[in-house]
Amino acid sequence: MSNRQNQTEVILIGAGIMSATLGSLLKELVPYWRITVFERRGGAGEESSNEWNNAGTGHSSLCELNYTVEQPDGTIDISKAVKVNEEYQFSKQFWAHLVKSGRVPDPRDFIMPVPHMSFVQGERDVAFLKKRFEALSTNPLFPGMEFSDDPGKLKEWIPLMMKDRTVNQPIAATRIETGTDVNFGALTRILFKQLKDQNVDIHYNHQVKDIKRAADGLWEVKVKNLGNGMTERHAAKFVFIGGGGGSLHLLQKSGIPEGKGIGGFPVSGLFMVCKKPEIVQQHRAKVYGQAPVGAPPMSVPHLDTRVIDRKESLFFGPFAGFSPKFLKFGSMFDLITSVKLHNLTTMLAAGVKNFQLTKYLVQQLMLSKEQRIEALREFVPDAKGEDWELVVAGQRVQIIKDTAAGKGTLQFGTEVISAADGSIAALLGASPGASTAVSVMLEVIRRCFPQHLKEWEPKIKQMIPSYGLSLVQHPELIQDIHISTAEALGLGNRTH
Ligand SMILES: Cc1cc2nc3c(=O)[nH]c(=O)nc-3n(C[C@H](O)[C@H](O)[C@H](O)COP(=O)(O)OP(=O)(O)OC[C@H]3O[C@@H](n4cnc5c(N)ncnc54)[C@H](O)[C@@H]3O)c2cc1C
């Protein structure tokens, strides 16, 4: 081990929102632990976490129709909506703690209040939205949600979307004032800056090439310094693989049995962006619609007010597509090199099962700008091509694995994969994503540091008062959390 450059308690691979969050949580819990970070890009938050690469929605189920499922008996199952909302409350509480403790100077650099809305057309979808509204608005997690099927009211709420619209079928929307737009790129950079200030050793332009268990039980990470081409070796007791789309390859290299039999299915994304103030100022909301038939749930179209560097713009999309890359700045060989003997049959089964989806994604990729503008006109009837530019978004690598539902099943959630002894963990998958980073990283801590949990819990509860509790069963706590996080995060005098 003489050629090891460095030995620390923790190595974080990747400088996205997940590593930023885990590093920040650990620094709060055990400030004296030494943490090293390796990132292949020149800075933090340049892949999916970057503000131009994701939609910036603080996912809390206020508007995403796919989180509430209509059951065969016509009732609405809101369990996923409740789960995602409770997870987002974790994030808001931790961010509020960071603001109150001075680690994050100004919350307006990363979070803004933007109403969340769902918008549907046609009798069937209007009936669904009404039932969804009835199921959510009586739940204490969703106070203040409004429903309207009156075109006049919708004109007030979403003037840009109602201008020049021919209303020849039922139309409806829900609106909740207390939604958020989150600049996850800015947040990632802020968190890495504060980690650096707390002596975390951060190496940009360093690509992790291999991860192996050394004879002394530590994990040894082989890293290429992309600046000078030299190879370095670093070791740690615990490694977190937060490589986003790059995590699957690294998990495979670690050789842990828990990482076997898992594959990845990359989905690319494109946004149409409008920066013209005279158009931008006519819309202030994140408005989610229904996914088109055959489309995957993560390609639900939405028209969003975004606040980036304190400037407002409108994002429409994401248009999903197919690309074999696992990272935006990845390689065309990512998909093929992720196929190993242990996941071959799983991948083949997924290939057969998802032929229609792949065909749909390839077709989406081939759409011309005019065809994309046509899709946008469902939301903005008088949209003109010259007002909107195309922006390439991040890659989302969906998990493929064998489940009770069958071999090679495509999963749309995120999943923590960890070694039985808790010495290494990876995060795979892409949804609900950055919004739930705090809850997902607390799951990593729960699984990988069980021996410290009892000692750490009081501090976790101090930072995140709802930790370990079901908020739906504690309505009094919901109110407290909504008020205190809104105050700390500058979200106004709000109930959410
Ligand atoms: C189109 C789109 C829309 C989305 N919309 C939303 C949304 O509205 N709300 C939401 O909450 N989430 C959204 N998400 C999901 C969210 O962006 C991701 O879940 C989140 O950013 C993932 O963070 P991460 O840290 O895991 O990955 P990333 O941000 O991708 O970071 C991983 C980092 O690891 C680095 N890396 C990879 N391999 C290596 C290696 N071998 N060595 C060193 N470094 C490496 C990469 O360069 C990268 O910087 C969206 C994603 C996409 C693509």
Ligand list:
flavin-adenine dinucleotide
Indicate the structural class.
alpha+beta
Helix content: 25-40%
Beta-strand content:
25-35%
The strand count comes to: 22
Our count of helices gives 15
Mean pLDDT: 94
The major beta sheet can be summarized as: 10 strands, mixed
> What separation lies between the terminal Cα atoms?
52 Å
Poorly predicted tracts of residues: none
Radius of gyration: 22 Å
Give the overall form: globular
Protein name: Probable malate:quinone oxidoreductase
InterPro entries: FAD/NAD-bd_sf, MQO
GO molecular function: (S)-2-hydroxyglutarate dehydrogenase activity; L-malate dehydrogenase (quinone) activity
Keywords: FAD, Flavoprotein, Oxidoreductase, Tricarboxylic acid cycle
Write the layout of secondary structure elements.
Blueprint (H helix, E strand, L loop, with lengths): L5 E8 L3 H13 L5 E4 L30 E2 L5 E2 L1 H22 L10 E3 L2 E6 L1 H15 L8 E3 L2 H7 L1 H4 L8 E6 L3 E3 L1 H14 L3 E3 L2 E8 L5 E7 L5 E11 L5 H8 L8 E12 L2 H4 L5 E3 L13 E7 L2 E12 L11 H4 L6 H10 L1 H11 L3 H9 L11 E4 L3 E8 L2 E6 L2 E5 L5 E6 L7 H12 L1 H14 L11 H14 L8
Parallel strand pairs: 1-2, 1-13, 2-10, 6-15, 13-22
Antiparallel strand pairs: 3-4, 5-9, 6-8, 7-8, 11-12, 12-13, 14-17, 14-18, 14-19, 15-16, 16-17, 19-20, 21-22
This protein binds flavin-adenine dinucleotide (FAD).
Flavin-adenine dinucleotide binds next to α1 and β11.
Would you mind describing this structure in some detail?
Its cofactor is FAD. Its EC number is 1.1.5.4. Helix content is 32%, strand content 26%. By secondary structure, it is α+β, with helices and mostly antiparallel strands. The strands form 4 sheets. Strands 6, 7, 8, 14, 15, 16, 17, 18, 19 and 20 form a 10-stranded mixed sheet that branches. Strands 1, 2, 10, 11, 12, 13, 21 and 22 form an 8-stranded mixed sheet that branches. A two-stranded antiparallel sheet has the order 3-4. α1 crosses α13 (437-448) and α2 packs across α15. It is globular. The N and C termini lie far apart (52 Å). The mean pLDDT is 94. Flavin-adenine dinucleotide (FAD) binds at residues 13-19, 38-41, 46-49, 53-57, 59, 184, 207-208, 242-244, 246, 250, 269, 318, 327, 393-394, 396, 427, 430, 432-435.
